[in-house]
């Protein structure tokens, strides 16, 4: 444990709070929230199917497999209904929270994200419980509330931006973000193991009560430990600037103005191909999230069909093995690809996207459960994508644009979710009767397109020396007090 703490520590101390202390608090917080998310993910397929069976009687003279596919389609349909309401709202709200966090810090958006998860889970419990058994139409309320409050993606975006504040050195940041992704996978592992234990000893609904209690504890931890302050480098540049207290009306007004400001981040003229890279990264990330979101969300529903016929216990086993594979893949990326082979971050991003494509193809061709497990091997590098992509984006924008860029990236994730819901899930419902693995093969092809786009970014960025590997000198200039090197007078002139 001490070795892990040493690995996370940094060389300079902050006079208010050391970077390592703040970082470790963020790591533990993210581990806990991911663990709670994993609890729900494991029990959701079973609880949703039971709700569908109580709500929709199946037509007579159906075979057992036809009945399974009948309810499988209803499960996907109600996932779509949630997403159609939630995601458009979250797309706009995410930009507002991103702009707010750039000005006032990451703590408040992070806390709001956790509260939204608490409310969303409460409504799910009331729907899934046979005692309360409220109507499925309450899904729409959950979608609206969760969208307005940012849900789990707001939490993740706030954590990523918080880490970018703590570690302005981009080379250090990419390593720390990979370590955070390892913690993410550890949270998934612990969550799956605990869920399996609780389901076997008590019942499925007890898992959700455990989740709610854990969220309350995490909220208290965040409230007491994390500081509410502006991004650190902006504090250094403007140490004496007064912090005006904004009214709620002013915050809302500034929030709507920030929609334009956030979009402008991707339209400003920048040195070299940085603006083009931002757009390519955004679209490539959109395609990857288009695939990954469907793969992650559909696997629990898909494997309830023949020839797999998984129950909650089998799905929990898969969700236990999956993070182990991801942890191995991320350590391989961190130690072998990054430290030993010194591959650029963009090279590892290409490998991560291709990894997801191969995983999807393997699932699409699977005829038994062992192939589903085998697909985890080629997919193990995908965990590198999120930390390295966010790190690369910080090299393309100014310090005070990081939150806006991350928010737009989060919005792209939401838009990918809308497209995934409208396209991939409808394709799944249309093809599940004649070839249920078709949508997985399509997802593999989409990943191939995203990998090719990043290949272009890799070649040109290497020529122009853009990336975390090339930012260390700029970081040293800043911390040596050479703020003349940073031109804050013209938007778009600073390229970290």
TrEMBL record:
Compartment list: Membrane
Residue stretches spanning the membrane: 84-101, 108-128, 140-163, 175-199, 205-226, 276-293, 320-337, 349-373, 434-457
Entry keywords, A to Z: Membrane, Transmembrane, Transmembrane helix
Main localisation: membrane
GO molecular function, one term: transmembrane transporter activity
A Pfam family hit: MFS_1
Record bears the keyword Membrane: yes
Record's protein name: Major facilitator superfamily (MFS) profile domain-containing protein
Domain of life: Eukaryota
Membrane topology: Multi-pass membrane protein
Entry's Gene Ontology cellular component terms: membrane
Organism (species): Steinernema hermaphroditum
């Amino acid at each position: 444990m001490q070795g892990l703490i040493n690995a996370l520590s940094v060389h300079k101390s902050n006079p208010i709070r050391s970077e390592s202390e703040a970082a470790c608090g963020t790591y533990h917080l993210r581990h806990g929230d991911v663990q709670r998310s994993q609890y729900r993910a494991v029990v959701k397929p079973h609880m949703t199917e039971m709700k569908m069976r109580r709500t929709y009687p199946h037509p007579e003279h159906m075979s057992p497999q036809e009945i399974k596919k009948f309810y499988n389609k209803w499960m996907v349909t109600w996932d779509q209904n949630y997403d159609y309401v939630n995601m458009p709202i979250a797309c706009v709200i995410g930009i507002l929270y991103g702009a707010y966090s750039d000005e006032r810090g990451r703590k408040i958006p992070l806390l709001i994200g956790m509260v939204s998860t608490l409310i969303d889970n409460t409504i799910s419990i009331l729907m899934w419980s046979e005692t309360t058994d409220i109507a499925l139409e309450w899904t729409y309320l959950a979608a609206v509330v969760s969208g307005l409050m940012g849900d789990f993606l707001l939490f993740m975006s706030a954590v990523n931006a918080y880490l970018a504040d703590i570690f302005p050195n981009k080379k250090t940041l990419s390593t720390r973000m990979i370590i955070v992704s390892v913690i993410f996978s550890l949270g998934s592992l612990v969550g799956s193991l605990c869920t399996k234990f609780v389901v076997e000893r008590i019942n499925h609904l007890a898992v959700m009560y455990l989740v709610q209690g854990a969220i309350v504890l995490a909220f208290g931890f965040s409230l007491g430990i994390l500081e509410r302050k502006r991004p650190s480098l902006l504090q250094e540049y403007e140490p004496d600037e007064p912090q005006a207290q904004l009214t709620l009306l002013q915050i809302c007004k500034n929030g709507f103005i920030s929609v334009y400001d956030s979009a402008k981040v991707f339209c400003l003229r920048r040195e070299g191909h940085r603006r083009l890279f931002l757009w390519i990264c955004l679209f490539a990330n959109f395609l990857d999230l288009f695939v990954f979101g469907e793969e992650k969300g559909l696997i629990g529903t898909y494997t309830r069909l023949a020839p797999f016929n998984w129950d909650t216990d089998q799905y929990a086993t898969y969700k236990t093995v999956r993070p182990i594979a991801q942890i191995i893949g991320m350590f391989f990326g961190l130690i072998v690809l990054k430290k030993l082979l010194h591959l650029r971050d963009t090279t590892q991003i290409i490998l991560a996207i291709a990894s997801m494509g191969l995983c999807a193809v393997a699932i699409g061709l699977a005829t038994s459960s062992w192939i589903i497990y085998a697909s985890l091997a080629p997919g193990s590098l995908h965990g590198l994508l999120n930390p390295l992509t966010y790190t690369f984006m910080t090299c393309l924008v100014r310090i005070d644009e990081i939150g806006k860029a991350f928010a737009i990236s989060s919005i792209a994730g939401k838009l990918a979710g809308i497209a995934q819901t409208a396209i991939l899930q409808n394709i799944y419902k249309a093809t599940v009767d004649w070839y249920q693995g078709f949508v997985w093969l399509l997802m593999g092809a989409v990943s191939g397109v995203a990998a090719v786009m990043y290949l272009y970014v890799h070649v040109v960025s290497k020529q122009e020396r853009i990336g975390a590997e090339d930012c260390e000198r700029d970081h040293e200039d800043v911390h040596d007090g050479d703020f003349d090197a940073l031109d804050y007078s013209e938007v778009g002139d600073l390229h970290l």
